[in-house]
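Thread: manganese (II) ion complex, take 2
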Amino acid sequence: MIVVMHKDSSEAELQHVVDRVQEMGLETVVLRGTNRTVIAAIGDKRNVDKESLLAAPGVENVVPILAPYKIASRDAKPESTEVPIDSTTLGGQRVGVIAGPCTVEDRTMLLETAHAVKEAGAVALRGGAYKPRTNPYDFQGLGEQGLEYLAEAAEQTGLSVVTEVLGCEHVPVVAKYADVLQIGTRNAQNFQLLSAVGEQRKPVLLKRGMSAKLDEFLLAAEYILSRGNHQVILCERGIRTFEDHTRNTLSLSAVPELKSRTHLPVIADPSHGTGRRHLVNAMSRAAVAAGADGLLIEVHPDPERAVTDGAQSLNCQEFEALMKELKTVAKAIGREM
Ligand code: PEP
Ligand code: MN
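Output below.
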C-alpha cells in the first residue's frame, strides 16, 4: 500500500503519517520524488485503517501496490530514479556508457583503457578485480591489487569505477575503492549478498540472473532497496536460451518492460548479452533506441590477447567509433550522451 502525500504537505504531516502507519504494525519507506513524496507501507494490510489515513492532514490518497516488489514498483514512485554516477546520473535525460576491460589484468592495460574510454565519452570505468569464473583453475582476478589500479585510473581520468563484488566478506573492501558495486548474474539471487550491498550506501549495479524472470530480477533489486539503499541500477545482460549463435540471448524487450514496471534506471550489456564483438554495435544501438538509460561495454586495448572475454571486447578505436554512432541514436530519440 502507498500513501501519497499532497505536493504541499509538510515534513511534520509526513512524519505523523509515518508514525500512524507504524502504529498499525507496518514498516514504512519514504520515497521522495521531485513532485510528490509517498510512503510505502509494507506488511499485513489487514491491519490498515485506510479511512483514518485518508483523514490525516497532508494525505492525498491511499492506494494498493499490486506488484510484489513494493519499493521498486513504479506504482510506488511514478517518477524515474536517477542514480548519480561521475558528474551525471543514470536514469535521467542522459544515456551513460560504462566501459572497460572484463578483467583488470595489469596496471598498464587498465590505465590505457581508462584514458581511451574517457576520451571517447564514457561516464565510468568497469573492470573486474574479483572474477566469477566457471572453472576454478581459471584466472580469478587480481583482488585488492586490481581495486588499487582501478582507483588510480579513476584518479587520473576522473571516471567513476564500477566493479563486481563476489561475496559478503568483500563488500567493505570493494566499497572502499569503487563508486558503484556490481552484482553479477551468478550472484543475482544470493540474498545475503544482496542484503549486504543494501546495507551500505554506494550505488549498486545489479545484473539480471541468467535464468531470472523479470519479477525475480525486480525482487532481487527489492532485497537491496528494502535494506535502505535506494540507488540501484538494473542491467539486462542476456539470458540462457536454446539459441547458441550468441553466448546469451540479449532480451531487449526487457528494457521497456522494466522501465514501465519500475522507476529504477535500466541499462543493457551487449558484450555479455551477445559474446560476439561483431554484434556489439548493433545491439548497443538497439538498446539505446529501446530506451536503455545506459550501456555496459567491454573494451580492451588488444582483445586478441585479453585474459577473459576477448571475443566480445571492442578495441579502443572500435569503442570510439561506437560512441559516435550512439550519439546519433540518442539524439534521434530526444536524449543526450
Ligand atoms: C562482468 O560484467 O564482468 C560479468 C562477469 O558479467 P555477468 O555477471 O553478466 O556474466
Ligand atoms: Mn566479461
